[in-house]
């Protein structure tokens, strides 16, 4: 079969092999649309997304259904304002997914006409369904958000796709591959939603690996488009001049370079997905759940950390000194629930950590903040918690990786850690061994020292007592020892706040096991919940 690019009426075309892939994808999408339209699990609004032809059309579509959906969500949640914001945030993210992936679809529509026109409808359908149900089907939504982040800046690469040379031919196949992988993921994820609730749960339990495989292929394919496009730019510097790239576009291109490097680091840290938006949504859900528990499951006579009580707590000596001192420090809050609720899964001091996370996330100053709600994650090993903290901080300081020497040093340290973990797994030993912990600790010190010393780095952890594997609890002590080490050794100013449920881990009675060499840097505060007079 010939693989030459064939012009049709003077217009450049994909080669026969790539056209066959696109034609097959169109046929599969038509069948998928038929199945979706015949399925009673989808609303009229969701099915109407199948007819959308562009990202702009999607924005108008989502805006027109926002009010109705907000009312529906409000009837299932407390507070119409919170419901409206949640749906609006999902809508904005969904539009960004379409907007970032549209350049690849447009290239396919241009060079494979009449094929490719159905794709935007397929993508619109999935992001609509996934965004509406993001609170219950978090895995698919998180994956879409990560794909969105990887696709930033693809419209710039669309502009350089115009030459007839070997590299350009190679790029066209990479684009077709990315298109086909993403559409396949959309259809597979869409089929997941055709199942009833119980069947969907069973599919999630036994079929998550298949979705993970599709998602991984999409992300790898998008990265291949990036790498090939960047190579094309470097081989033809005149292209940049001819395109007359504006500062904003150049910044977008630079951001895509940064994201590529962050993706490489994240992969070596063995983190599958991370999205700031999904983490903030997790935070909001946790706040809602814990407030509900305190309001309705606990006696109303018990002391609460909220309002002026929270403000008073934050003004007490230990907390105030930790927050405002000029040196790196760590505050460990050990909370003991009142004996009436000592078996509760919630800790009465958790609102202190949640309030800090919320206020720091909204703060206008540029001080970086990373947080981890240990009890709300399936990933609870010490290395998983620390790795998530590190990638959060790196994403807030990604421009420093433009210094190739600094990036190479960090990459080498992370790769060394990854190799140690791989060796442990191959030898059948525990995944988070002592050597791996030490190497990740070195990576953490490296990441923190990349920050400007004028910044204060905030790390907030809730329920460190839950940092453990199914059988072993040493992870929580390992994590705390690492954080103590970092506070004492780091060259920049770091503030760590950790909340612990004392009934689950009496850390205040084991402070000597954290290997703290400078007690002034690590402060414990043990607080027992009392009954109030009211």
TrEMBL record:
Residues 97-225 form the DUF7708 domain. Pfam families: DUF7708, NPHP3_N. Keywords: Repeat. This is Uncharacterized protein. The lineage of its organism: Eukaryota, Fungi, Dikarya, Ascomycota, Pezizomycotina. InterPro entries: DUF7708, NPHP3-like_N. Residues 314-498 form the Nephrocystin 3-like N-terminal domain.
């Amino acid at each position: 079969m010939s693989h030459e690019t064939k012009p049709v009426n003077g217009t450049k075309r994909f080669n026969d092999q790539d056209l066959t892939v696109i034609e097959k994808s169109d046929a599969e999408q038509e069948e998928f649309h038929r199945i979706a339209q015949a399925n009673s699990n989808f609303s009229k609004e969701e099915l109407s997304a199948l007819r959308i032809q562009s990202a702009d059309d999607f924005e108008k579509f989502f805006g027109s259904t926002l009010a109705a959906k907000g009312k529906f969500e409000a009837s299932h949640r407390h507070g119409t304002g919170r419901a409206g914001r949640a749906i609006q945030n999902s809508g904005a993210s969904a539009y960004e997914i379409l907007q970032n992936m549209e350049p690849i679809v447009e290239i396919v529509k241009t060079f494979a006409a009449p094929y490719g026109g159905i794709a935007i409808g397929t993508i619109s359908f999935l992001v609509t369904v996934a965004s509406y149900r993001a609170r219950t089907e978090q895995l698919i939504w998180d994956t879409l958000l990560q794909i969105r982040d990887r696709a930033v800046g693809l419209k710039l690469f669309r502009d350089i796709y115009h030459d007839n040379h070997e590299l350009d031919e190679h790029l066209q196949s990479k684009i077709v591959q990315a298109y086909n992988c993403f559409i396949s993921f959309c259809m597979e994820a869409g089929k997941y939603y055709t199942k009833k609730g119980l069947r969907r749960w069973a599919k999630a339990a036994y079929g998550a690996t298949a979705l993970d495989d599709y998602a991984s292929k999409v992300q790898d394919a998008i990265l291949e488009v990036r790498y090939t496009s960047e190579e094309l730019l470097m081989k033809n510097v005149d292209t940049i001049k001819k395109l007359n790239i504006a500062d904003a576009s150049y910044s977008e291109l630079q951001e895509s370079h940064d994201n590529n490097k962050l993706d490489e680091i994240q992969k070596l840290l063995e983190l599958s997905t991370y999205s700031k938006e999904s983490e903030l949504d997790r935070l909001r859900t946790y706040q809602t759940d814990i407030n509900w528990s305190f309001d309705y499951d606990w006696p109303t006579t018990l002391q609460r950390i909220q309002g002026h009580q929270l403000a008073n707590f934050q003004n007490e000596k230990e907390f105030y000194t930790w927050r405002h001192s000029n040196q790196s420090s760590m505050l460990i809050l050990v909370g003991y629930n009142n004996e009436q609720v000592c078996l509760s899964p919630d800790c009465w001091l958790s609102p202190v950590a949640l309030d800090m996370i919320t206020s720091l996330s909204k703060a206008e100053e540029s001080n970086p903040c990373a947080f981890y709600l240990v009890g709300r994650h399936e990933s609870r090993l010490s290395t998983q918690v620390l790795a998530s903290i590190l990638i959060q901080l790196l994403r807030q300081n990604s421009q420093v990786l433009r210094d190739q020497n600094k990036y190479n040093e960090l990459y080498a340290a992370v790769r060394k850690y990854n190799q140690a973990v791989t060796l442990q797994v191959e030898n059948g030993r525990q995944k988070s061994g002592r050597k791996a912990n030490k190497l990740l600790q070195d990576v953490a010190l490296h990441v923190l020292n990349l920050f400007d010393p004028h910044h204060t780095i905030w790390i907030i952890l809730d329920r460190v007592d839950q940092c453990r594997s199914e059988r072993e609890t040493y992870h929580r002590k390992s994590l705390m020892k690492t954080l103590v080490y970092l506070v004492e050794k780091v060259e920049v100013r770091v503030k760590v706040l950790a909340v612990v449920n004392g009934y689950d881990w009496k850390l205040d009675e084991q402070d000597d096991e954290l290997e703290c060499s400078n007690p002034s840097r690590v402060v414990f505060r043990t607080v027992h919940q009392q009954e109030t007079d009211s």
